[in-house]
Amino acid sequence: QITEALLKERDKQAKWNGIPLLLQKLYEHSHPNSDFSQCQSILKEISPLLSMEAMAFVTEDRKAAQNSTFPNTYTFDLFGGVDLLVEILMRPTLITQKKKQKISDDLIKDCLSILYNTCICTEGVTRRLAERNDFVLFLFTLMTNKKTFLQTATLIEDILGVKKEMIQLDDIPNLASLVSSFDQQQLANFCRILAVTISELDTGSDDKHTLLAKNAQQKKNLGPSRAEINQATLLNIPGFIERLCKLATRKVSETTGTSSFLQELEEWYTWLDNALVLDALMRVANEEAEQSSTESSDESGLANTSTRTQLPQSMKIMHEIMYKLEVLYVLCVLLMGRQRNQVHKMIAEFKLIPGLNNLFDKLIWRKHSASALVLHGHNQNCDCSPDITLKIQFLRLLQSFSDHHENKYLLLNSQELNELSAISHKANIPEVDAVVNTDRSLVCDGKRGLLTRLLQVMKKEPAESSFRFWQARAVESFLRGTTSYADQMFLLKRGLLEHILYCIVDSECKSRDVLQSYFDLLGELMKFNIDAFKRFNKYINTDEKFQIFLNQINSSLVDSNMLVRCITLSLDRFENQSDAKVAEVLSECRLLSYMSQMSMRMSFLFRLINIIHVQTLTQENVSCLNTSLVILMLARRKEKLPFYLRTLQQMEYTEKYPGFILNNFHSLLRFWQQHYLNKDKDSTCLENSSCISFTYWKETVSILLSPDRTSPCAIVSYIDEAYMDIDRDFSEE
């Protein structure tokens, strides 16, 4: 509506660079009956003005960029450019005539590029686009076209990143045929987009949310969440999981020919955000070339080739790593979702695990990991290089794959499975059903299975490496569930116990996360296993070493309580056995002797109850409550419960603060009932890990909570009337 003369006049002063005039022309040439032929040349004029800014934004330090203004993209949006482009793109969907208008691929590409650049530079544009549900769903339909696929995917990813409401994959027109039209490369890129649609919005800090808040949230959300519905939608797409497994396990040599690959890189180069990736790739390629020319001709036979012929191979590897990252992430989320068993079955059938096993040395844990590959503005130690992220994603997948699932034995090869059977026979114990039932045609092949490969790299990992946490978690999840002597011995024979103790005691590990994962792993490895305690004693063979070990345990009981629970349970079982070997270890082992002192058990119990409160319980520290319960259940079995409660009361008096432990414990147990007696709650974990029936857990809690002040096993009998403070209700404050 503003006259051309006025726009021209203001243009120089306002430094608009002619954008409003160009937009006016674009508007005139894009009326409903136009053929769009002129639009393209106008966009070609606008495009460079915006892409320069976007380039600057991505390559500059992001912080600095946010402070600077981006006049061109701002002007473009101010004069309605964004809405106009959306209208041009969506025009064909509005026309009902027989003769549908066809927009050329190049025009679509230009529109998408300009939109993307504006989103990058101008605050609020992405959010505005995200609010237009029709546009977001329309973008998915553009993905069927190979030529505009990358541009569309990148824009969708940006938009979904800021969208408040998660989209429903069900709403995407013809989703199944869209996915089946993708080649493997497109499917991998599509996984980047899917990641946002199947992950719960705040899962990142799951351990940190208080259980009170989570329980309240669950009461509100009766049906499945959008993410869960989307997961189900994906699983219903024919062949989807099979294709993901193929992508995850294909070798670099199987990827498409170099020519199309380089052509795609050119596409990428014009396509902004990936300029970073390209930069990174070039650096890796040069490094690799230098490396291979300094080494003598190694088995890869790359030593005498020039950098030029080598570039594609190196880039192919990086490319493949980036694809696998996305795919493994999606598989991992699906493995942790509601349809877990269905996903497990499919993943086993499509041989994901043996496939990953074959890639382990060459790709996942390759020697010349490009540790120098760091994207702009990041330092070397941050975990965002694709190489590092792939390793972590791979370890997370192993963890969710073997956690409480009998398919975990697919991580071994046939010989290793035979070894498990032999361990059981030798010890005269029945074989685990899951081992017997494992389908041998689906297990790992090669000299080693994935689990043993993981142990090998774990032992070589430098002390301060961020992988240690994930490695320990992955191995621990293999041991979780009902304790299996054969599984423990399999790992003990490979020196795992000594390795963990070396890390905890000799290298005096300081990282809380790593320590916690090592204590948890040690607990699973030693539970009820007399040979493990014997080995422990052989390694921790001086008082000085034992003292360091105790200091590490006591430095944070939240981190070490699962190990304390394992020692307590094991001691109880050993004391009830009449075996000469057990008796010998019981008398010699420092750890068991230490825990058999009543004063030590009481000290642990007192501190475990003292570090948690109902208001601060989380997924991470609720284990302290269960460990304190284990100590008291074992006391109840020996009819010592009143003695323990009286001792807690005396300890309170010594601390000059009567009632503060027992009142807190009373509230914690009431919360325990609310939390674990919920019909959706899975109590098998508590049973499996303690070998104490859930009925006994429930009975013990109700005896402790009995309101009868004359009962010798009720907590209230040990709190003086004056200090009683147990009737408060929990609220979610």
Automatic annotation (TrEMBL):
Residues 288-308 are annotated as: Disordered. The keyword Zinc does not apply. It comes from the Eukaryota. One of its GO terms (molecular function) is phosphatase binding. SUPFAM superfamilies: ARM repeat. GO terms for cellular component: Cul4A-RING E3 ubiquitin ligase complex. GO terms for biological process: ubiquitin-dependent protein catabolic process. The keyword RNA-binding does not apply. Keywords: Receptor. InterPro entries: ARM-type_fold, TRPC4AP. This is Short transient receptor potential channel 4-associated protein.
